[in-house]
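Design job #97: recover the sequence.
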């Protein structure tokens, strides 16, 4: 696909994944319009878009006129979401307002203003819940462990319905834990790796909760490549795909790798999983993403050691902007 001068609309464009995608699209010459409401507690950071030649609109997807923003877009990358699992439990109405009701607003606006646009929707592996068999393929039954999982599943399903009833080219990517530059590192709200990196750069030990859980982290450049490949490949349209990343590693293995990448200066403590989080924890997860690889030709290219190293280097000179 030739992205040059193509209008692309990115929701959640000042967040972690959205901003990385905006940079990549702008580098390809696309006319990028990004929407972000800078929601408290999420990954939005104005510094995330430093140096990106894009138009950022500050506004809330629940209220703003979305037709103007969609007008003329040939691709919509839909990443705006309430992403906090504890936040969704605390305020499930706000959670469903953003992750499901506002999705229907966007669907209706896109029907009017961008009826032909391809939509790539950011979904999540979260709503598979606790699984017994690994790796997890797309036919795994859905059993959301928390309110956020319910709302994200509903949002995805409204988009897939739009494909079935209106034939819109929609792709839903069920992402696993992602990491890399522009991740929220102030606390553990985005992933455990964020707060680990902060602690390492501040010279403090980080905490590992549990330790045996398996994760298949995706480096952000590979996530960006997956979004772009999903839009570009007609074989992906109308499909839901799991997206994995590095081969599965336990949290303890990941912690040891962080220590190694730090040159042995970092250290960590192991703690029992906090009871309030244990109730909504999904245990071990890794994706079977062979369907997406076959449809798009995508493969994750960044290994864990390289990705963690690049992430730490990126924050070394920018720590103050992210605390
Ligand atoms: N990062 C991951 O590991 C991961 C894993 C699975 C799924 N996802 C999905 O990917 C997408 C992006 O996640 P992220 O990690 O970049 O999170 P993020 O919090 O950094 O980005 C989401 C962005 O959406 C914006 N937003 C939220 N509500 C809004 C509203 N009402 N109006 C306008 N903007 C609003 C936030 O301000 C934020 O900038 C989300 O849909 C998320 O569910 C991410």
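Job complete. Output follows.
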């Amino acid at each position: 696909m030739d992205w040059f001068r193509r209008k692309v609309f990115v929701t959640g464009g000042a967040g972690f994944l959205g901003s990385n995608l905006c940079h990549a699209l702008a580098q390809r010459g696309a006319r990028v319009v990004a929407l972000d409401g800078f929601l408290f507690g999420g990954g939005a950071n104005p510094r995330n878009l430093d140096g990106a030649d894009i138009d950022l609109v500050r506004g809330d997807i629940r209220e703003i006129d979305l037709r103007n923003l969609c007008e003329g877009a040939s691709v919509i990358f839909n990443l705006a979401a309430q992403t906090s699992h504890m936040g969704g439990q605390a305020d499930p109405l706000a959670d469903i307002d953003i992750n499901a009701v506002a999705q229907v607003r966007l669907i209706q606006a896109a029907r009017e203003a961008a009826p032909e646009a391809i939509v790539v929707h950011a979904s999540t592996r979260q709503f598979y819940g606790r699984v017994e068999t690994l790796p997890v393929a797309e036919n795994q039954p859905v059993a959301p462990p928390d309110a956020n999982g319910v709302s994200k599943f509903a949002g995805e399903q409204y988009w897939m319905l739009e494909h079935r009833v209106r034939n819109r080219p929609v792709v839903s990517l069920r992402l696993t834990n992602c990491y890399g530059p522009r991740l929220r590192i102030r606390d553990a709200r985005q992933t455990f790796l964020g707060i680990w990196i902060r602690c390492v750069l501040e010279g403090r030990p980080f905490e590992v909760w549990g330790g045996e859980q398996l994760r298949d982290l995706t480096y952000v450049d590979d996530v960006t490549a997956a979004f772009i490949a999903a839009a570009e490949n007609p074989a992906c349209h109308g499909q839901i795909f799991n997206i994995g990343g590095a081969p599965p590693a336990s949290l303890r293995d990941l912690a040891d790798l962080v220590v190694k990448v730090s040159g042995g200066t970092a250290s960590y403590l192991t703690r029992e999983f906090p009871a309030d989080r244990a109730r909504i924890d999904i245990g071990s997860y890794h994706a079977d993403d062979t369907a997406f690889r076959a449809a798009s030709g995508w493969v994750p290219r960044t290994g864990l050691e390289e990705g963690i190293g690049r992430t730490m280097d990126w924050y070394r000179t920018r720590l103050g902007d992210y605390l």
